UniProtKB/TrEMBL annotation, chain A:
GO molecular function, one term: tryptophan synthase activity
Species this chain originates from: Corallococcus macrosporus
Pathway: Amino-acid biosynthesis; L-tryptophan biosynthesis; L-tryptophan from chorismate: step 5/5
Gene: trpA
Record-linked InterPro entries: Aldolase_TIM (IPR013785), RibuloseP-bd_barrel (IPR011060), Trp_synthase_alpha_AS (IPR018204), Trp_synthase_suA (IPR002028)
Protein's recorded name: Tryptophan synthase alpha chain
Residue spans crossing the bilayer: none
Annotated PROSITE patterns: TRP_SYNTHASE_ALPHA (PS00167)
CDD domains: Tryptophan_synthase_alpha
UniProtKB/TrEMBL annotation, chain B:
Record-listed N6-(pyridoxal phosphate)lysine modification sites: 89
Catalytic activity: (1S,2R)-1-C-(indol-3-yl)glycerol 3-phosphate + L-serine = D-glyceraldehyde 3-phosphate + L-tryptophan + H2O
Subunit structure of this chain's protein: Tetramer of two alpha and two beta chains.
MF GO annotations: tryptophan synthase activity
Its EC number(s): 4.2.1.20
Protein's name according to its UniProt entry: Tryptophan synthase beta chain
NCBIfam families: trpB (TIGR00263)
Gene (UniProt): trpB
Domain (Tryptophan synthase beta chain-like PALP) ranges: 55-379
PANTHER family hit by this protein: TRYPTOPHAN SYNTHASE, TRYPTOPHAN SYNTHASE-RELATED
Length: 263, 401
């Protein structure tokens, strides 16, 4: 298992903050400029970077990330190029920040799960999130990742029954990604009232940090979650900010959200 | 003989590759379906509705003039085009909407390519009084105006999908996204024998009524099973329905016909069994058209129902193990077959079905005289007349102008 992720969460906790896992799409608007976005998010206070690798058919994503995928594919972003051209550069500019890849299972399968795990480790990737790979289908891929020390981060949903959520949490690698709303990625005005209870349940069962994601877009939506989670994932809001106003806007938004994460 | 090798698996293919949010709904569906299957009253109701409303059994028509013209096997047509709404799709939607009602779901969503599945879903929803939304690629909305009207007339809402290639694949992505958001009270009626487990099994079971009837009807007509059955393959629901009941009968050749579009070398086709590679699309592992990086490629076919870069996992398994032979037909070959069938047998087949006819001539000759060939006539061509007539109609036959 990668120790890097655990350390990043521990550091944020020691500072009295929830961790910010900041997502952006590699290759949006192009490969070099997406590196600037990742670096800016770390300057804004991001504790973990989630590097999106585009897929043509992103069924777990809402319109903002779907559009970013289309832009990234047009710019020639492939898993191979992201690992070769984006990840090393982000690593160079942000050596202290753990990197997690988020993509779809077909993209990893096309490269070959073992080949991917090996390359990911060599490039310094700590973990990987595959939103269309539920536990029932994940044994083979997880074994390949474990062998290389790349954490396969599991997801938990609002529809996941408690016993299943506990099993997912107990068995997790890296951190547990608790999906806050039944739906696709994207900003929402309000999060469901039972989210805090679900986070508490997962946190009790988990031996790794627990984060909430989907629908969190600013300090206000992040603030109530720090009492129940070790951190939050912010994606669509950052992708939108970077797309319309560039890296500085993503940095600013990270800084705002970090203020909401102070305990 | 069964092709199931593990729960939800057909050899290497199948599975359930979906966001965690949907997994509990799929588990619930799997359980509800198993209970329904074990309940005689459910099966009786499905059978009754198929008989009283859909018009089953559909006939098995001897195609005398095609038989004579092709000079090979005796040709029989399994007439799914005569089922209510004009295609086999209704077999599945009646079953799934009854299942949804049994599960207490309040609302139905579906995706559609050619519009036949959308019309069939809208029809079943009208019959059983459930609200219905159909996601359809914006390009298909343009190509299939008649079916868009029919869905709206039946009270369904048609939602055009503008993303990606604006065809079936994108409609399916959108339906899955909407389903993730409203999974508690919404039932997603998938129309192809594709998607996450248990859909490929459910759709296959409801469509297998086609093959079971072929079995009974050929026994009655010729006193034995046919020598070959041929069907077109997009996602593959009509094919798996016609072929599945014969998987164990090794004397029966099973043949699937894919869309070769502008040609297999053109890069513009829908031939995922012939040229696809193993991948995950729309929740199952199967053969898909994709590039070396795992990005799904856009399919092409003159027929909106075959314009799909994936295929059902059970058909992938049957093709890879050699139980099913796979052939292809181009757009032009399908069009030529359309007119041949129209003018030889008095039937306007759907463009999808025309692909099966296009490949059936060579198969009939391979089989030779005295053999029996069944072509699954999956749907009627009315929905395609705008597409076909736009290319000009060949002059009338046997009439002096």
């Amino acid at each position: 298992m990668s120790a890097e992720l655990g350390k990043a969460f521990a550091k944020a906790k020691a500072r009295g903050e929830g961790a910010l896992v900041a997502y952006a799409m590699a290759g949006d608007p192009d490969l070099p400029r997406s590196v600037d976005v990742f670096a800016a998010m770390v300057e804004g206070g991001a504790d973990v970077l989630e590097i999106g690798v585009a897929f043509s058919d992103p069924i777990a994503d809402g319109p903002v990330i779907q559009a970013a995928s289309e832009r990234a594919l047009k710019a020639g972003a492939t898993l191979r190029r992201v690992l070769d051209e984006v990840v090393p550069e982000v690593r160079r500019r942000c050596p202290e920040t753990p990197l997690v890849i988020m993509t779809y299972v077909n993209v990893v399968m096309a490269m070959g799960e073992e080949r991917y795990a090996k390359l990911a480790r060599e490039r310094g990737i700590a973990g990987t999130i595959l939103p269309d790979l539920p536990p029932e289908e994940s044994a083979g891929i997880r074994a390949a990742f474990d062998k290389e020390g790349v954490d396969l981060v599991p997801l938990c949903a609002p529809t996941t029954p408690p016993a299943r959520a506990e099993a997912i949490a107990r068995d997790a690698r890296g951190f547990v990604y608790c999906v806050s709303v039944a739906g696709v990625t994207g900003m929402r005005a309000e999060l469901p009232p039972d989210l805090s209870q679900r986070l508490d349940l997962v946190k009790r069962a988990a031996s790794v940090p627990v984060v909430a994601g989907f629908g969190i877009s600013n300090a206000e939506t992040a603030r109530p979650l720090v009492a129940h989670a070790d951190g939050v994932v912010v994606g669509s809001a950052l992708v939108k900010a970077a797309h319309s106003d560039g890296p500085a806007a993503a940095k600013q938004l990270c800084a705002d959200i970090k203020r909401g994460l102070k305990r | 003989m069964t092709t199931d090798t593990a729960v939800g698996r057909f050899g290497r293919y199948g599975g359930r590759y979906v966001p965690e949010t949907l997994v509990p709904a799929l588990l619930e569906l799997e359980e509800a379906y198993a209970k329904a299957q074990a309940d005689a009253s459910f099966n009786e109701e499905v059978t009754r509705v198929l008989r009283e409303f859909v018009g089953r059994p559909t006939t098995l028509t001897p195609a005398h003039r095609l038989t004579e013209s092709w000079g090979g096997a005796n040709v029989w047509l399994k007439r799914e085009d005569l089922a209510h709404t004009g295609a086999h799709k209704i077999n599945n939607t009646v079953g799934q909407v009854l299942l949804a009602r049994r599960m207490g779901k309040k609302r139905i969503i579906a995706e559609t390519g050619a519009g036949q599945h959308g019309v069939a879903t809208a029809t079943a929803c009208a019959l059983f009084g459930l609200p219905c939304e159909v996601f359809m690629g914006a390009l298909d909305v343009e190509r299939q105006a008649l079916n868009v009207f029919r869905m709206r007339a039946l009270g369904a809402v048609v939602r055009p999908v503008e993303s990606g290639s604006r065809t079936l694949k994108d409609a399916m992505n959108e339906a899955m996204r909407v389903w993730v958001s409203q999974v508690q009270d919404t039932y997603y009626v998938i129309g192809s024998a594709a998607g996450p487990h248990p859909y490929p099994t459910i759709v296959r079971d409801f469509q297998s009524v086609i093959g079971r009837e072929i079995r009974t009807q050929t026994q009655a007509a010729i006193g034995r099973l046919p020598d070959a059955i041929i069907a077109c393959v997009g996602g593959g629901s009509n094919a798996i329905g016609a072929l599945h009941p014969f998987i164990g009968d090794t004397s029966v050749r099973l043949v699937g016909v894919e869309a070769a579009g502008h040609g297999l070398d053109s890069g513009q086709h829908g031939a995922s069994l012939t040229l696809g590679t193993e991948g995950v699309l729309h929740g199952s592992r199967s053969l898909v058209l994709q590039d070396e990086h795992g990005q799904i490629q856009e399919a092409h076919s003159i027929s909106a129902g075959l314009d799909y870069p994936g295929v059902g996992p059970e058909l992938a398994h049957l093709a890879k193990t050699g139980r099913m032979e796979v052939r292809t037909a181009t757009d032009d070959e399908a069009l030529a077959a359309f007119y041949e069938v129209a003018r030889t047998e008095g039937i306007l087949p759907a463009l999808e079905t025309s692909h099966a006819f296009a490949a059936a001539r060579a198969l009939a000759r391979d089989l030779g005289k005295g053999k029996q060939l069944v072509i699954n006539c999956s749907g009627r061509g009315d929905k395609d007349v705008a597409t076909i007539s736009a290319r000009g109609v060949p002059p009338a036959t046997g009439v002096k102008s």
